[in-house]
Amino acid sequence: MKSRLLFFLTLALALFTSRAQADSQLYGLTRAGQLLSIDKTTGTATSVLTLPSQYTNFRGFEYAAGNFYASYNGGRILRFGLNGTVKDLGSSGYPIVNELSRSPDGKVYAVVSQNDERSNGVNDGRAESLGQLDLSNGHVSITAAPPNATTIGVGPSFRALVFTDNTNFYTFHIDGGIYEKPWGTLLALTPTSNYFSTGSLPAGANANWGVLTGLAMDPDDGSIYGVDGWQVSSDLTAYTTISSTLYLVTYQTPDLPQQPIGSTGYSGIIGLAFGPKSLAKMSPAVALCISGIICPTPTP
After folding, report:
1. Can you tell me the distance from the alpha carbon of 151 to that of 251, in angstroms, rounded to the nearest whole number?
2. Backbone φ and ψ of 19, nearest 5°
């Protein structure tokens, strides 16, 4: 009896500890579909898995409700897990999903385009509206949009997005699309203020050093991390994939909103997300229980 009680107490403590740290690992996803675990102190990334080759051109990335979610091929949504399971949820309902971000209450929001500018010869990947992602079917419902959001060639583009609470967030604004300078500005917004209600943008931190393709807030201490995945060409006619660097983002310093931590060792990272530690780093018993597979039977 004592052995059984001790087993359950030990398992409960292990599960509690593992769940308390469940979302403390920083992950990145490359445009080609490689999931990486990233060391927050050095920036060094390690490959975790590679998604099947039929899923390409990833843009947005987030972890929520026990799974990773990513947008690919413009506006389609993919759900996948650390164990390699993959499910195509289908179309978001919009041609472009630039970013996915989870608010502290567990809702996932998407930065989307309400007009397919690429079909009209404007290939800047612009996305101007905010919507909530349905985790069951991948559909996005618009929650906030600027004036003239459906008009071709109108409005700026938002790329990276991170919620600091359930209503306030930081976003990386690519001024006028990827073909124009300055390349980007880091902004603090709410869905109902400034840009979304009046069409005007508040002052932000200029970031001419490149394009942030992902932002994520550490659930342990509230630190915000950013990553760059591409750079605008010198003639401003295209962007190129670059070696991705991890940054500590400090919006309060307008002239230098990023502090480089280090190179990830990978190129083209399009998003960041905090998720669970790899199952391989947990004890077998805890990993199996957290995975929902099986919990071992205690010795009588």
Report:
1. 31
2. -70, -35
